[in-house]
Write a structure and sequence with these properties.
With 429 residues, this protein is α+β, with helices and mostly antiparallel strands. It has helices at 9-26, 44-59, 104-121, 146-152, 158-162, 171-177, 208-211, 250-268, 304-325, 344-356, 372-375, 402-420, 425-428; strands at residues 63-66, 72-76, 86-91, 128-133, 197-203, 216-222, 224-233, 237-238, 273-275, 279-281, 288-289, 292-301, 328-337, 340-341, 361-366, 381-386. It has two domains: 9-222 and 339-427, Aminopeptidase (3-Layer(aba) Sandwich), CATH 3.40.630; 224-337, 2-Layer Sandwich (Alpha-Beta Plaits). The chain contains 13 helices and 16 strands. The strands form three sheets. Strands 1, 2, 3, 4, 5, 6, 14, 15 and 16 form a nine-stranded mixed beta sheet that branches. Strands 7, 9, 10, 12 and 13 form a five-stranded antiparallel beta sheet that branches. Bound molecules: (2S)-amino(hydroxy)ethanoic acid and manganese (II) ion (2 copies). One manganese (II) ion (MN) binds at residues 91, 102-103, 136, 202, 370.
Length: 429
Amino acid sequence: MAKRIPNSQDLLAQFGERMLEVLEELSSYGADPEGGVTRLLYTESWLQAQRALISKMQQLGLESAFDAVGNVFGKLSGSQIALKPVLTGSHVDTVKNGGKYDGAYGVVASMMALGYLKAAYGEPKRTLEAVSFCEEEGSRFPLAYWGSGHVTGARSLAQAAELADPAGVTLLEAMRQAGFNAAGLGEHPAKREQIGAYIELHIEQGSVLTYRHKQIGVVTAIVGQIRLTVHVTGSSNHAGTTPMTMRRDALAGAAEMVTLTEQMALEAGEPLVATVGRLEVRRGTSNVVPGDVTFTLDIRHTDEPEMRTFCVRLLTKLEEIALRRGLTIETVENLHASPVAMHEGISAAIEAACEAVSFPSMRLPSGAGHDAQLFGPICPSAMIFVPSVAGISHSPAEFTEAGDLVAGFQTLVHVLYQFGYGGEADEII
Ligand code: HGY
Ligand code: MN
Ligand code: MN
């Protein structure tokens, strides 16, 4: 049974309340008039949010600064420098019109947890670092995990020059415009070595915890995902004078491909999911037969070979549709993240913490991708979930009850205490 950390309930409650306030404040950066939050990598609202986080981390007594690509760290230095630091955090960017909790909750709770531990217990033995990763979603550029990917070495600046957003701005230009000119610092200017562990607190973005009446989720594994862009070309032509039998209609072809994607995913059955989230018709006009369509594919599975096999089968079928319709099809893989199991030792410590503070918990897999997916292959990594009301996320309707947000915060505090101040954690990592 984990020792219940000697803490001042009042102080812990105050930091929990402050966490809720800061979460609200953070959601004002990129707030959309039509609801939700849009905070895309290297945009003005993104920069203001990261700067605000640095200032708040410094007010909490953490050493805080940007790294070379725009991640923000808040460090609580430990006395025993031989002990590898434990990182805890999440991502500050959002999807378009996203919710105010996805990513932001883990960032704010992590920094408030370190603030509380410093106030209640002073200098830890082991360095603890809160982190706000600059980008995880892949909402602006066709790439994801730009922040944690740099810290773990999975991303390099070479990728920045060729990737462009829908307005044609390259990732490298966007970096420079936001003040991150990492030229001359090598390909991996933000890579960190010697990380002891990574712990991420996040909303579940599903409805399992709610359905099972649990307050805390201990994540067993994070789903793998393959993201692709599919470009279908036919021939634009006059909508009035081109007989139906003489068309090479890229949109009609893409529509058949989208429907087949859904059908094949349904036939494959759970846990496989496949989604077409964006479809664009170039030069789309009501009286023109479409000749150029691009759409995205997002394929996920907990098993790597199953995910790959489905992807190959699907792309083969899409090519058959293109051939039959006289279209050409080009697919580009933008992201391939393998499924990653979470660390058993840390997960057990999270469960023990829940037991010590009487939060009902359960183990469950994550259908969403997370920064912990990038850390899992390089250091012990674990995730803590709190419930999402009605399982809604990536939407302005995303919501988590304050009591659950505080429960997740207190669970994180408890676990970080053990890694920072306790002794038993040293055997875990
Ligand atoms: O797409 C995801 O799974 C995550 O929210 N980035
Ligand atoms: Mn997220
Ligand atoms: Mn997300």
